[in-house]
Amino acid sequence: MKHEIQEFFNLPLEEKKKFERLAGDTDGYGQLFVVSDEQKLDWADLVYLKTSRPYLRMPVFSKLSFREKIEEYSEEIKELTMKILELLGKAVGIKEEEVKSLFEEGMQSMRMNYYPPCPQPELVMGICPHSDACGLTILLQVNETEGLQIRKDGVWTPIVPLPNAFIVNVGDVLEIPLTKQKNSLHPILDSALLSSHSSVYDHSEELEALKHVDLLAYLQKFSQMEFTEASHRSVVSSEKERISVATFHSPRLDGEFGPADSLISADNPPKFTKIGVAEYYRGFFNRELVGKSYVDVMRITSGDDLKN
Ligand SMILES: O=C(O)CCC(=O)C(=O)O
Ligand SMILES: [Fe+2]
User: Record's InterPro entries (predicted)?
Assistant: First the structure.
């Protein structure tokens, strides 16, 4: 799939335009989160596709010559995502059924990002700082060009691409179910690098190898970390192009999400309201992708300081 994605972005513009995102739509080739002519655009081209559930796929999906590869990758990533979500839930005390009922039939989408080199990289941003609006993101770096940065202790920290590794990012939708009472540690994973230790760069082997990593111990360790920001961004190189594929796993569209019922008690009152998943995404796609997340809309602000 890496090869096909590379080939796609190398096509002449006229060819790529055949897959262009239509006005009012989210899927296809082009830019997202553009709300005004004045806005500074990201130094990137992207293809956004809803990949699962299959009924969510748009016509542009079936036009892509490498759709079967995407389908295969999508299924394997879903399996991996569910495994991580269940273990993550277990690590912080959310019942498995609760995780399954929200995410098993969830929406999966992919964002293939192409960052061309820029002669003055300091003047542009590949993707502006943001946190992902999903539950969990599995990020594949298609080539070895560096660019992703996460905000750690207030500092933008580069993530060096490792061969045979995915980057797992926690999205906004997990922040809400997992948020605990103020004086406990914030049980959210920071960007966690999971290395598969496989020497052959083939994603099925990567996934197979990942099954042997002790994820629960790993996640428990991370879930004890004090968490301040989930923001990440990508910068561009002056010489080399960069390609990444983010696969976002979100809750089921006819579901509702908010603080996990299994974590709410008199001592740990909800800090967020519940919201219908479809309504949440409508709000998300109709704004500019800047800074902290749409989650703030759901924050219950009455009472004392609710942020950790
Ligand atoms: O290109 C990257 O490494 C980051 C991509 C990303 O954050 C996204 O697609 O949401
Ligand atoms: Fe992202």
Answer: DIOX_N (IPR026992), IPNS-like_FE2OG_OXY (IPR044861), IPNS-like_sf (IPR027443), Oxoglu/Fe-dep_dioxygenase_dom (IPR005123), Plant_2OG-oxidoreductases (IPR050295)
Does residue 169 contact residue 232 with C-beta atoms inside 8 Å? Answer: yes
pLDDT tens, residue by residue, 238-282: 999 999 999 999 888 888 777 777 777 787 777 777 777 777 777
What does the alpha-carbon distance between residue 249 and residue 74 come to, in Å, rounded to a whole number?
10
Burial of 83 (0-12, 13-18, 19+ CB in 10 A): middle
Q: How far is the CA of 10 from the centre of ligand 2 (A)?
A: 23
- What stretch of H or E contains 137? strand 136-141
ipTM of the complex, rounded to two decimals = 0.98
> Does this model's pTM top 0.90?
no
d(CA 133, CA 77): 18
- Written as one string, the DSSP assignment of 144-195 is S---EEEEETTEEEE-PPPTTEEEEEE-HHHHHHH---TTSPP-----EEEE
Q: Which of 136, 148, 149, 150 to mutate to test the pocket of ligand 1 (most atoms within 8 A of CB)?
A: 148
Q: Which residues contact 111 (CB under 8 A, 6 or more apart)?
A: 32, 46, 47, 48, 245, 246, 248
